[in-house]
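User: Batch of two.

Assistant: Item 1 of 2:
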Amino acid sequence: MTHRESVTSTEFLAITNRLTDLLAESLHEEHAPAATRLDRLAREARNYITNNAGHYWLTPDAVAQHLGCSKRTLERALHAAGTTPARLIRDTRLDHAHQLLTDNRNRQTIHEIATTSGFPSIAAFNKAFRLRYRVPPSHIRDLERSSATNRTNRPD
């Protein structure tokens, strides 16, 4: 019995159409300009980093391995977007941490926020946060909490 005999004609047609589409897509990508391939790679890297930034194991090497390219190719793809793999990972983690710090419903400690955001240590988090925002994380949290208190205490 061949595989052709084990599927219906409708299923066989759907499978062959999908295989044809995949082959055409693959051939198109092979002949696409390098810039197009690098743009696609940069988009995929951003998506992967956004979805995994909270994991401590996320490194430029891990991103390149997941995307099936060399670290150098990943660097070239992100260079066109004005960043590097390490900077994109750090900035994505900082964006997430900042969001948690300014969310008044969030009751995590700063150490927990650092860990949740993927930083390997509180020291690494504090250093990166101060470099980007020019203030310690506690300052951002205190500002947000005091402004929230002021908003709730205002007379109507």
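Item 2 of 2:
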Amino acid sequence: KSVANQDLWRVLAELREKHTLTTHWVKAHAGHPENERCDEMAFAEAAKF
């Protein structure tokens, strides 16, 4: 099965070699403040296209 956005995953892998990265899963659209902020930022950036 092909991986979507392979170019972006490669960039992320390179950045992980230079920086400490911690990820946490949070349920989407559940009122989590940081998740809501990320949604707002993503929609604002997408609207530019």
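Residues 24-49 form one domain.
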